[in-house]
Design goal:
52% of the residues lie in helices and 16% in strands. It is α/β, with parallel strands linked by helices.
């Protein structure tokens, strides 16, 4: 499996809340490649986004947003794949974030709305500002 793009928590939240089209456009671009690559969703980022969607929103709105997030991560014939947090990477993920660990592992780009923070742990060319 070739992971081309890794979505961090900020990108997952934007997608789920429909607060921007950039993530959807990235997924569509990878999809157009005909299955040659996937968009990675780090499990740690998914869990963080899922929890954040439950906090501070009306119940119906939060439920719709969580459903979009779950659909993104679990669509069988889609181009997204949930990336597991391996035991050997737990310390690195605690220090740098699970998304940064996966970007390094796969040589992928990090799609984020928090580029400044991401560049503390990743080189500039590995960060795609949304």
């Amino acid at each position: 499996m070739t992971v081309r793009i890794v979505l961090d928590t900020s990108a997952l939240l934007a997608y789920a809340r429909l607060s921007g089209v950039a993530v959807g456009e990235l997924i569509a671009m990878v999809e157009e490649d005909g299955g040659a690559a996937v968009v990675g969703i780090p499990a740690g980022c998914f869990l963080e986004a899922h929890a954040a969607l439950a906090a501070g929103q009306a119940d119906a709105e939060a439920a719709r947003d969580r459903a979009r997030l779950v659909d993104l991560a679990t669509t069988v014939d889609g181009v997204t794949a949930v990336l597991p947090l391996l035991g050997a990477d737990v310390v690195a993920a605690a220090e740098d974030g699970h998304a940064a660990v996966e970007v390094r592992r796969h040589g992928a780009l990090l799609a984020t709305y928090e580029g400044r923070q991401a560049r503390r742990n990743l080189p500039d060319e590995a960060v795609l500002d949304l």
